[in-house]
Specification:
CATH architecture: 2-Layer Sandwich
Strand content: 15-25%
Number of domains: 1
Structural class: alpha/beta
Distance between the termini: 30 Å
CATH superfamily: STAS domain
Number of helices: 5
Shape: globular
Length: about 180
C-alpha cells in the first residue's frame, strides 16, 4: 500500500513559512518552523547528503534545534553503502541539535521492507542520541514529530506539519525550472 499525495490548499496556506531550499529530479528539501523535511524520489547520492547537510546547517543557524523528517518515495532505490555511511555521519554530527527524526516509507512488500531495514541500519550506525521512528504515512509522522517537539498542548501543529510534508513531496514531483 502506498501513501497517496494529499492535495494541499492553495499557495502553502496550510503551512505558512514553508520554504523549499532545494529541489531536483531526485529530491526536494524544505524547512518549516523548526523542521527540515527531505523527500527522496530516487536513491540518495553524495550530493543529496551534502544538500541535506546544508539545509540542516542553514536552518540551525536560526534555530536551537531542528527535527528531521525524511520521506522515501516508492520510486526511490536503495542508496549504496558509502552514501548510507555518509548519512549516518551527518546524523551523528548534528545529533545534539536534532530532538527527533522520522522516516516515512510507503508501500508494502519486499521493497518497503528493505527500505525500512536500511533506514534502521543507518540509525544504528549513527548511534543517534535522539528518538527515531520509521512510519508508513505522512500524518502519522507529523503527529509523532509534533508530540516530540510540542510541549504546549494548546498549540496543535500536526495538521500544518502534515501539509508542509505534502508540499515538499509535491515539490519533488515538479520538474526543476517548471514552477
Amino acid at each position: 500500500m502506498s501513501f497517496p499525495l494529499r492535495k494541499p490548499d492553495h499557495d502553502g496556506a496550510e503551512a505558512p513559512g514553508l520554504e523549499i531550499v532545494s529541489a531536483g529530479r531526485s529530491h526536494a528539501i524544505g524547512t518549516w518552523q523548526n523542521v527540515v523535511i527531505a523527500v527522496w524520489s530516487t536513491a540518495m547520492d553524495f550530493d543529496d547528503v551534502e544538500r541535506l547537510d546544508a539545509a540542516l546547517e542553514g536552518h540551525l543557524f536560526w534555530r536551537r534545534e531542528v527535527a528531521l523528517i525524511q520521506v522515501i518515495e516508492e520510486t526511490a532505490e536503495a542508496s549504496n553503502a558509502s552514501v548510507r555511511r555518509g548519512l549516518a555521519r551527518l546524523l551523528t554530527r548534528h545529533a545534539a541539535k536534532i530532538p527527533c527524526s522520522a522516516f516515512i516509507v510507503g508501500g508494502t512488500g519486499f521493497h518497503a521492507a528493505a527500505a525500512r531495514a536500511i533506514i534502521t541500519s543507518v540509525a544504528l550506525v549513527s548511534k543517534a542520541r535522539f528518538p527515531q521512528v520509521v512510519l508508513s504515512n505522512p500524518m502519522a509522522a507529523a503527529n509523532w514529530v509534533d508530540r516530540h517537539l510540542n510541549s504546549d498542548a494548546q498549540l496543535p501543529r500536526a495538521a500544518a506539519l502534515g501539509a508542509a510534508i505534502e508540499r515538499v513531496r509535491l515539490a519533488a514531483l515538479v520538474e526543476p525550472g517548471s514552477h
